[in-house]
Amino acid sequence: MKNLQSGLAEQITKYLDWREALGYSRDTDGRMLARFDKYCAINHKDAKELTRDVVCGWIDSEDTCIPNKTTAIRNFSKYMQAHGCDAYEYPSIGQSREKGQFLPYMFTVEELRALFAAIDKVKPCAIVICRSFYRRCFV
After folding, report:
1. What is the CA angle 129-132-133, rounded to 5?
2. Is the pTM of this model over 0.85?
């Protein structure tokens, strides 16, 4: 990419060339990494490595496109690690828990009876009935 100005510009360019050689579009990660480069040029001028401060600072700097930003920076950090560089790898969204940590809540028989008794006491609303009727007819 042209106009990259940060200390990571050369590595970003090599990464995008490598992805393009593998058959990926340069634009897939290119736009996000151009924004990352601009952020680094302003806030971390001398950064030559992907540190946690640099990566998290960029991800937190804007609220837009967080999943796209994390994917692009994770791919770039994996590339840098594979080429012997020390790079912080941002955790993947949706994989914050280790497998086996989720423990479902089990209702007791008394809690289920109380729940369904409360549900049975709810009076239907005419508006809700009409909405569900129209939803079935027109969807």
Report:
1. 85
2. no
